[in-house]
Structures are given as structure tokens and as C-alpha cells.
Amino acid sequence: MTDKAFVDTNVLVYARDRAAGSKQKIAHELISNLWDSRCGVISTQVWTL
User: Is 49 contained in some domain?
Assistant: First the structure.
């Protein structure tokens, strides 16, 4: 994968939420793949208050 992929904050939440069931597994795998490929991006607004 060479294109950048925008990661919605919900995906980050699902990856950490044990109550999310199958969504947690899918989100964790997605984030892991994007991390390894260095293709994931998030909005800078996510980190500003």
C-alpha cells in the first residue's frame, strides 16, 4: 500500500475498546497494517482542544 489512508477517530477508539467485539479486532489489524506500512494519517484537529 503506497496511498495514504485517513484514519477516523472511531477506528482508534474501537481498537482500544474491549467491549467493541469484532470491531476491536478489525480496527486493531487495520491500525497495525497502516503503522507497518506508514500509510495511516489522522487529522491534526484530533489532537487539538
Answer: no
The range of the structural domain enclosing residue 18 comes to 5-43
Distance CA 18, CA 38 (A): 25
pTM assigned to the model? 0.77
36 inside domain: yes
Instruction: Look at residue 22 and tell me if it is in a domain.
Output: yes
Q: What is the pLDDT along the chain (49 residues), one digit of tens a residue?
A: 569 999 998 999 999 999 999 999 999 999 999 999 999 998 877 555 5
